[in-house]
Q: What sequence folds into this?
């Protein structure tokens, strides 16, 4: 089948214009311009920005994917558009098209090119995880579970993220294990988020930091990043967790190392009485300790969803 | 190969009426939809009472004390649903023949289909695959429109980030109902109507392999639909279509409607797939070699394999979930030794093949239709078939890409990244085939062809955005956001549903002998195509800007984009309304006959009258050539519909002989 078509295609090609060349010449400038725009003009503004190492690596991946995707998309659209204009059915023409059943070389070329693109992408994605010793990439900000395999160099600052319906609280084990809803990070230091949940599955998504890790009950899900610029960032719950899932968000702050130390020491002292009531710091919490946790939270004045639009008494447990 | 030579004796296409015959009893005493409803209500009440008894609500000993994991009401609800399903089927007469056989009385299914003509047969447990196809078609349109209305309700709520149309409780119920209804029922949106109706005709068979199983697969869908919808009366469920535990264990009784309906739908598709696989393997006419099988049939076979292999996993997952909620097992409850990862793995081991269940039938329709409208053979037939088989095989090896941020198995991420990206190679074959077929074609832009072209366009965007999600770093930004939501709406709504529309405009003249109004069809197409893209393209940006899925409220700076999307979604809904108007107007009011072969198709299904005769073919045809031999000089007809006596028998003898030698 495939072999016979090659001959069927060539005689017509001699008499008519070279459609393949035309399509290529229309496609090439479109692909080049689209790639240039995507990489150099729009690229630096692509999500999720460059606030941290993991955000930057995600942005770079999205940029690379876009640069590969645009020519593929453009090729199919240009080819189809050309076909619809040039090879459309003309009024009064009742004949059929040429019986082309296939074309071995074109088929082989298509399969080879798509396989090469795909395998390169897979190798690229694996590299971007830090699988080849790139410690700065450290799993690209994705939650790696209790025993991470891609880690940054040095001793990271540990922050435990405790998710529950419907708020995030944060514990700082290196500062006496106090718990608060305020999220402060120092700039330029590797940070280790230990994400866990005390009820259902949530997801800790620090958008501008490029950190996303599911909060599973009973599991310590570790994600790394190093923040490179001071400023604020959004934290949102990214896994449907019930009624007020959409209201489960807050803001984090990235400050200088000195400012962070000052804040941490001050808060440690301020919350000392609450910290004493808390269960001892652990990578995950048994449901039996939840009542204890909540009692402490009430004393610290933290209750209800952390959403901006709701007074704390609004959300009710389902 | 087992070729059916005596279909009349083996299994008529007729209905499951009692042996006394339909005429003997008044209409209301014959099993049909109304007796099924009675059966379902009686069954529900019985089951509920039984559940109340077991849980002690009626004063009996409380054998299953209420523990915080679930409500004590779960037993009555689950048992009520279960007995309602059985009552529904009993009311339909599904068990009649089985019981007759058990007591040694003759079964009644030998009545011929044309003796049961008339509208009433569409409301009965009817064994003719053509009736089942029409039942599926109407059912699927109803299910799709219901779930579509729920989607528009969601978009109405999202018009404003802070002002509310619904309470958060109602909103989350709508989210769950929309998602689950679409994902569980649209699995059959093409296999049900077109697979059941057309596959036997396309392969030159008078019947399907298992007419009872096929009819049963349809009659489970209205029950799944109603059970799911009844969740609204039980307070709904707050966990979307994925039902992640432990939220789904914590949820109130509405969650039982989700688990029972989804599990039931798993049974339905497994049965439907089983029937199609056996039909295609065993009931092909002489000369219908694998290399001549229409591409649509290839897609039905590959989808059916996914049905049969993936749906039992879903059923198991739903069963464990129900057990966790009722019998207080702890498969998924971390604090009692279970694991929420188990649910995630089970769900996506089914869920990812399901995504391809929602893609392959669309590939099948577009690949089947473009040769007809290009007036050229399908380019690279074998590559197209290999693409479908490759997609279905690989789809079982990619499920953990849904769990890249879950913390599970970080060392497996490169593996699942590569398998996920590999799947774009066979998917790309579908585009190679399309572009090759367009080459030097004579493309006729009729309504079905326009829908096919739109499907290729939409699925291209859906497919390319899917590659972003396969890459762990890029996925870490996009996972769980509106980007994912836009991506799979592009593949399912933009791919599957556009292909479904192409199929309706193309095959409705075949199935009913009536053609849809072409002018309204053009309006429907253009509004749907533009509104679809206008609705879902901005959602990629919304997701990349940081808006998670299924939220009730969102960042105020994203209101502009969200409003644009919501308003576009109304136009999309309007286009579907146009379609429904066209469908009803053309088939009920105008009824413009279209008995010939309006598309000059070579497909075997177009060689018989429209609608086809009761037995599809007067005689088993002998297939002579490929259905795609357009433009071939002196091409053979696709089949000999009246082969000389003895030819079919000889073909069977030689097939048998070949089998003996082998
Ligand atoms: Cu949450």
A:
């Amino acid at each position: 089948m495939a072999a016979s078509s090659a001959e069927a295609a060539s005689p017509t090609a001699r008499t008519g214009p070279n459609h393949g060349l035309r399509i290529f010449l229309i496609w090439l400038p479109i692909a080049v311009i689209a790639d240039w725009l995507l990489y150099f003009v729009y690229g630096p503004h692509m999500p999720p920005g460059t606030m941290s190492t993991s955000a930057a690596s995600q942005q770079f991946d999205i940029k690379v994917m876009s640069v590969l995707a645009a020519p593929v998309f453009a090729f199919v659209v240009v080819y189809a558009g050309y076909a619809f204009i040039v090879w459309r059915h003309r009024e009064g023409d009742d004949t059929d098209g040429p019986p082309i059943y296939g074309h071995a070389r074109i088929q082989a070329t298509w399969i080879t090119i798509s396989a090469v693109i795909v395998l390169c992408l897979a190798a690229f994605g694996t590299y971007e995880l830090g699988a080849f010793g790139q410690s700065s990439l450290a799993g690209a900000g994705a939650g790696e579970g209790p025993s991470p395999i891609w880690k940054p160099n040095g001793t990271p600052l540990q922050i435990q993220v405790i998710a529950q319906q419907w708020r995030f609280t944060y514990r700082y084990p290196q500062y006496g294990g106090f718990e608060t809803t305020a999220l402060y990070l120092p700039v330029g230091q590797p940070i280790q988020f230990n994400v866990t949940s005390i009820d259902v599955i949530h997801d800790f998504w620090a958008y501008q930091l490029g950190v996303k890790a599911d909060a599973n009950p009973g599991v310590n899900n570790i994600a790394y990043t190093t923040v490179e610029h001071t400023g604020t960032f959004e934290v949102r719950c990214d896994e449907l967790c019930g009624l007020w899932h959409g209201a489960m968000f807050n803001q984090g702050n990235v400050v200088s190392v000195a400012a962070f130390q000052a804040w941490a020491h001050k808060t440690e002292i301020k919350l000392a009485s609450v910290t004493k009531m808390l269960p001892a710091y652990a990578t995950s919490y048994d449901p039996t300790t939840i009542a204890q946790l909540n009692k402490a939270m009430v004393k610290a004045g933290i209750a209800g969803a952390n959403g901006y639009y709701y007074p704390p008494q609004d959300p009710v447990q389902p | 190969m087992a070729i059916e030579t005596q279909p009349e004796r083996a299994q008529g296409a007729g209905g499951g009426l009692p042996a006394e015959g339909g005429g003997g009893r008044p209409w209301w005493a014959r099993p049909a939809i109304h007796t099924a409803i009675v059966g379902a209500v009686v069954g529900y009440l019985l089951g509920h009472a039984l559940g109340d008894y077991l849980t002690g609500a009626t004063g009996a000993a409380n054998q299953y004390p209420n523990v915080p994991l679930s409500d004590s009401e779960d037993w009555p609800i689950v048992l009520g649903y279960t007995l309602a399903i059985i009552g529904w089927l009993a009311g339909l007469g599904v068990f009649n023949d089985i019981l007759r056989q058990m007591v040694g009385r003759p079964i009644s299914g030998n009545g011929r289909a044309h003796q049961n003509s008339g509208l009433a047969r569409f409301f009965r447990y009817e064994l003719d695959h053509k009736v089942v196809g029409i039942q599926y078609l109407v059912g699927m349109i109803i299910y799709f429109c219901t779930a579509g209305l729920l989607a528009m309700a969601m978009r109405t709520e999202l018009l404003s980030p802070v002002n509310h149309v619904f309470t958060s409780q109602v909103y989350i119920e709508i989210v769950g109902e929309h998602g689950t209804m679409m994902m569980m029922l649209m699995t059959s949106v093409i296999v049900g109507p077109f697979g059941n109706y057309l596959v036997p005709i396309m392969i030159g068979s008078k019947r399907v392999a298992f007419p009872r199983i096929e009819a049963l697969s349809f009659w489970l869908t209205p029950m799944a639909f109603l059970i799911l919808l009844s969740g609204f009366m039980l307070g709904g469920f707050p966990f979307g279509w994925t039902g992640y535990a432990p939220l789904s264990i914590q949820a109130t009784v509405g969650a039982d409607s989700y688990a029972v309906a989804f599990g039931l739908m798993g049974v339905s598709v497994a049965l439907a797939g089983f029937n199609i696989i056996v039909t295609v393997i065993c009931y092909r006419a002489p000369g219908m070699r694998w290399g001549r099988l229409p591409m649509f049939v290839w897609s039905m076979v590959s989808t059916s394999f996914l049905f049969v292999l993936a749906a039992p996993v879903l059923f198991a997952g739903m069963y464990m979930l129900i057990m966790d909620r009722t019998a207080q097992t702890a498969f998924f409850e971390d604090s009692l030794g279970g694991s929420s990862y188990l649910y995630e793995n089970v769900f996506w081991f089914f869920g990812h093949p399901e995504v391809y269940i929602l893609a392959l039938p669309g590939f099948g329709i577009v690949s089947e239709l473009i040769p007809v409208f290009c007036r050229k053979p399908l380019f690279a037939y074998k590559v197209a078939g290999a693409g479908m088989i490759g997609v279905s095989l690989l789809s079982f090896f990619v499920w953990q890409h849904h769990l890249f941020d879950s913390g599970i198995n970080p060392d497996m991420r490169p593996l699942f990244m590569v398998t996920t990206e590999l799947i774009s190679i066979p998917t790309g074959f579908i585009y190679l085939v399309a572009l090759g077929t367009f080459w030097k074609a004579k493309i006729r832009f009729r309504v079905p062809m326009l829908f096919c072209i739109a499907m290729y366009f939409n699925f291209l965007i859906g497919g390319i955005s899917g590659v972003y999600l396969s890459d762990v770093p890029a996925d870490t930004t996009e996972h769980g956001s509106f980007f994912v939501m836009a991506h799979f709406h592009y593949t399912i709504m933009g791919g599957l549903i556009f292909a479904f529309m192409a199929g309706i405009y193309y095959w409705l003249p075949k199935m009913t002998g009536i053609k849809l109004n072409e002018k309204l069809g053009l309006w429907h197409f253009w509004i749907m195509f533009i509104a679809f893209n206008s609705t879902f393209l901005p959602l990629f940006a919304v997701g990349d800007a940081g808006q998670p899925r299924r939220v009730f409220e969102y960042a105020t700076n994203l209101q502009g984009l969200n409003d644009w999307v919501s308003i576009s979604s109304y136009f999309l809904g309007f286009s579907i309304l146009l379609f429904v108007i066209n469908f009803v107007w053309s088939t009920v009011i105008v009824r413009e006959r279209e008995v010939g072969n309006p598309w000059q198709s070579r497909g075997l299904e177009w060689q018989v009258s429209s609608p086809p005769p009761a037995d599809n073919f007067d005689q088993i045809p002998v297939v002579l050539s490929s259905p795609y031999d357009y433009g071939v000089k002196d091409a053979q007809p696709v089949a000999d519909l009246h082969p000389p006596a003895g030819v079919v028998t000889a073909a069977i003898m030689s097939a048998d002989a070949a089998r003996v030698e082998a």
Strands of chain B lie at 622-623, 639-640. Chain B touches chain A through 94 residues (CB under 8 Å). Confidence is low (pLDDT under 50) at residues 1-23, 59-70, 110-114 of chain B. The two ends of chain B are 12 Å apart (CA to CA).
